[in-house]
Design goal:
By secondary structure, this protein is of the alpha+beta class. The protein is built from 16 helices and 23 strands. The protein is globular and about 80 Å long.
Length: about 550
């Protein structure tokens, strides 16, 4: 009996051990399966990691720096979108009409659009955003439609009306910009409605939401589940903040980045090396702007058009562009490239010609005394200063090249590298002789370009104030911006651009292009038509 009890007890213990073992195996199998499913989900998630040189900012749609344009455009959308060749297409407004006098714009709001928090997009929230922008209209005075705006109205739930003080043909183009007229949801507004002080949260109608963020380190965007349009093919975009361009390239080569995109985000050398390696996909955009010199005609020496022409003829633009940009940028013969509306005009290029440059200076009375390297007139040396952004290696290299080439025609050029904010401040104050300057690109141009030619406060109009035809030039600008006649606008743009070219008031150097380099897993990349828009909408990945 004792033996039988021992046997029974032993069988019971063994049974318990086997049960525990079976349960352990089952739990292990469940855990393994869960882990495999999680790993598979991570592997199948379509995402890309990109870099940016600076923090994305506060994601306020109505303010400027430090908010970054590409990131703002991921969250916030316009009434009108800008397409290739200047075409305007419906976006949050499904249609619009303009009164015969060009002053009233009536927009039909797209139905069933929601913000990322699920609240409706309607005419009332459109007006609230316009009101917030107009509370700080002085901050946006560079934008013509803001200066022209008289009032806004909610006609009904899905109809919004905008009335201008005077006709302004580029009003719709201005509304397609990334800022300041894009739309924040109700939950994002501060209690007093003044968004210039900040927003509570970044609630937009765009295809992306900001899911995670650590200042100066990273930002993670995921798809907006309430997006009204076609959802992006990728589910997540991670933006790593990498200020140094060479560090950015190393991260890309290690596979830590899938894509590098933008203007000046990597050096021309690095772009060429990545292209030549054959391991990656690279591309250049169409011209997005013109790299130019702004000549200050209020300087007595530069008030003489012959001196300006001499400087224009006096450096080898083609050789400089090829040498410094490695041929990635093209020599600019026109102040605005011909891929913008109204800019496909024929103007006489001002080519490199030392003999002409010398002849212009001689004719203007600038003589080169025997034994001296710098020309003089009335006891004054022909000495000028060129200011540039000291963080821009291309500007620095071009400044040094012009310094050497102009020395050969008897012009002493002093070059001064400045912080960008100081450079802009000096430009606005007219405290410069020559300055590097870029136009704004699509969809701002050509109307924004000619606007600053006439509109004071930005340094460009003031720099042209000594041109003998300045008054006529300003009248042509105002007429072009107000005209509702296509043929008249084309004629006026042609006249304005030709005058500036002939006067060498602005010296075009090269056409700026965006660069992109990406890993082979990235597919369907297309440069956006709007210079400042994000490029992620159509992107896909092969795994």
């Amino acid at each position: 009996m004792i033996k039988s009890k021992r046997k029974t007890l032993l069988l019971s213990v063994m049974s318990i051990f086997m049960s525990v073992a079976l349960v352990g195996c089952a739990e292990k199998e469940v855990a393994t399966t869960a882990k495999e499913e999680t790993t598979q989900a991570v592997q199948t998630e379509k995402s890309i990691t990109v870099s940016w040189p600076r923090d994305i900012g506060t994601m306020n749609p109505h303010v400027y720096n430090p908010s970054q344009l590409f990131a703002q455009s991921m969250i916030y959308e316009p009434l009108i979108s800008y397409k290739e060749g200047g075409e305007l297409a419906p976006h949050l407004a499904e249609s619009w009409s303009i009164s015969e006098d060009g002053k009233e714009y009536t927009f039909k709001i797209r139905p069933n659009v929601k913000f990322s928090d699920g609240t409706p997009f309607n005419a009332a929230i459109v007006k609230k955003n316009f009101d917030a922008v107009m509370l700080n209209s002085k901050s946006h005075s560079w934008l013509g439609v803001i200066n022209a705006l008289e009032k806004t109205e909610v006609v009904d739930e899905l109809t919004f009306k905008m009335t201008l003080k005077e006709p302004y043909y580029p009003a719709l183009q201005d509304l397609s910009l990334v800022r300041p007229v894009r739309f924040l949801g109700e939950a994002g507004f501060p209690d007093d409605g003044d968004t210039s002080k900040g927003v509570k949260e970044s609630v937009g109608t765009g295809p992306w939401i900001l899911a995670d963020y650590k200042k100066d380190e990273y930002a993670v965007f995921t798809r907006n589940p309430n997006y009204w349009g076609e959802s992006p093919k990728i589910e997540k975009v991670t933006v790593k903040i990498i200020p140094d361009p060479e560090t950015r390239v190393m991260a890309f080569e290690k596979g830590e980045l899938d894509l590098i995109y933008g203007e000046g985000v990597i050096s021309m050398d690095s772009f060429s090396q990545l292209k030549e390696s054959g391991k990656y996909v690279t591309a250049l955009s169409q011209p997005v702007g013109t790299r130019s010199l702004l000549l200050n005609s209020t300087n007595e020496k530069l008030a003489d058009s012959r001196v300006r022409l001499a400087l224009h003829h006096g450096f080898n633009k083609q050789a400089m562009v090829e040498g410094i940009t490695l041929g990635l940028e093209e020599k600019a013969d026109n102040i605005l490239s011909k891929n913008f509306p109204y800019t496909n005009i024929n103007v006489e290029p001002i080519d490199y010609n030392v003999e002409k440059a010398t002849a212009y200076l001689e004719e203007a009375g600038w003589k080169q005394p025997a034994g001296k390297t710098v020309r003089e007139k009335d006891g004054q040396a022909l000495e000028l200063e060129l200011i540039y952004d000291k963080t821009d290696p291309i500007q620095k290299a071009m400044a040094e090249t012009m310094q050497a080439e102009w020395a050969a025609i008897g012009v002493k050029l002093n070059i001064t590298g400045l912080e960008l904010t100081v450079q802009i401040k000096r430009r606005k104050a007219g405290e410069f002789d020559l300055d590097f300057w870029y136009n704004y690109g699509a969809p701002y141009d050509p109307h924004s370009f000619i606007n600053v030619v006439a509109e004071k406060g930005w340094g460009v109009s003031e720099a042209h104030s000594s041109l003998p035809m300045k008054q006529d030039l300003d009248q042509q600008v105002r007429a072009a911006l107000a005209s509702t006649d296509e043929a008249q606008r084309q004629e006026l743009y042609g006249s304005i651009l030709k005058t500036l070219q002939e006067q060498s008031a602005i010296v075009p150097i090269s056409y700026i292009k965006k660069t992109v380099v990406y890993q082979e897993k990235v597919t369907d990349f297309i440069f956006p038509a709007n210079r400042d828009e994000h490029p992620f909408q159509g992107i896909d990945t092969s795994k």
